[in-house]
C-alpha cells in the first residue's frame, strides 16, 4: 500500500474528488491537480466537467432532444424529452408549468426579440438559437447541430415511413371506412327527414304555379285568335283592305316594340320556352312568399344531400378505397 502511495506521489498528475461535495444536491466535480513531485507543492487550477446548473442544455438521446433546465421553485434540474415532429412550443411550455407550479410565465423568443408562436413545432424551434424566459429569468439556448442524413440513410427512413403507413392503413382503414359510411348514412337520413315537409310544400307550389302559367299561355292564344278574327271581319265585312292595311302595319310595329321592350327589361330574347319558364318562376316565388316557403334553406339542404350521397357513392367503391366488399353488400 505504501509503495503504491509512493508511485502516486512521484506521478506528475493526481486525480482528486473533494469529499465535501458528494453530499450536496449538485453532482460532484472532478478536480485535476498537477504535482510538483511532493505533497506540499501544488500547482495548477481546477477544471469542471459539468455544465453550470443555471443554464439550459439540449442533448439528443435515441434521436429525441432532451431539454435540461433548472426548476425555479424546487431548485433542481429537470429533463424534458420532446417529440419535435408533433410537439409544439405551447405544449412544451405547458409541460414546464405542470412540472413546476411556481412558473407563472413561460415564453420563447427568437434571437431578434420576436415572440415565437405557441403553434410552432419544436422541430422548427430547435433549428436556430432562441431565448427561454421563465418568470423573470432569461436563458439563451443554443441547440446542437444535428448531422444531416446521407442519401442512403434518408432513403431507408423514407422506406420505413412508407411501411409504417401501409401497416396503419391495413389495420385501421376498414374500421374507418365503415364508421364513415355509417356517419354518411345517418346524415342522409337526417337531411331527408328535414326535406320531406319542404318537398311536400314545394310540390303544391309547383302545381299552382304551373297551372297559372298554363292558363296564361291559353289566354295569350285566345287573344291572338280574337285579334286575327277581328282584323278579318273588319277587312272583308266592314272596311276594305286599303283602310285596314295601315292598321295592321301599326299593330305589327307595336308587337315588335313589345318584344324589344322585353329584351331591354330581361336582357333575353323573347323565346317561348324561356318566357314560359320565367313566368313560372315569377308565380313560384310569389306563391312561396305567401306560404312562407324558405327557398334558400331548401336549396342548402338539397346541396348537402347531394354532397353526402356523392361522398357515400365514392366511399362504396371497393377497388378505389380497398373497402371490404362483404360489409357493403350486407348493408345494401
Keywords:
332 residues; single chain; three-stranded antiparallel beta sheet
In a nutshell, what does this entry contain?
The longest helix has 88 residues. This protein has 332 residues and is of the alpha+beta class. Helix 4 packs across helix 6.
Q: What is the strand and helix layout of this fold?
A:
Layout: H1 2-10, E1 13-16, E2 31-35, E3 42-43, E4 57-61, E5 64-71, E6 76-81, H2 89-99, E7 106-110, H3 122-125, E8 130-134, E9 137-141, H4 151-238, H5 241-266, H6 272-290, H7 295-315, H8 318-321, H9 325-331
Antiparallel strand pairs: 1-2, 2-3, 4-5, 5-6, 7-8, 8-9
Helix pairs in contact: 4-5, 4-6, 4-7
Description:
This protein is 57% helix and 14% strand. With 332 residues, it is of the alpha+beta class. A hairpin with a 4-residue loop joins strand 5 and strand 6. Helix 4 (151-238) runs antiparallel to helix 5 (241-266) and helix 4 crosses helix 6 (272-290). It is elongated. The N and C termini lie far apart (92 Å).
Arrangement of strands in the largest sheet: 1-2-3
The SSE string, one letter per element, is HEEEEEEHEHEEHHHHHH
| Helix amount | 55-70%
**Count the helices. How many?**
9
Derived structural class: alpha+beta
Report strand %: 5-15%
How many E strands?
9
Largest sheet: 3 strands, antiparallel
The average pLDDT is 75
Radius of gyration over all CA atoms, rounded? 44 Å
* Global geometry: elongated
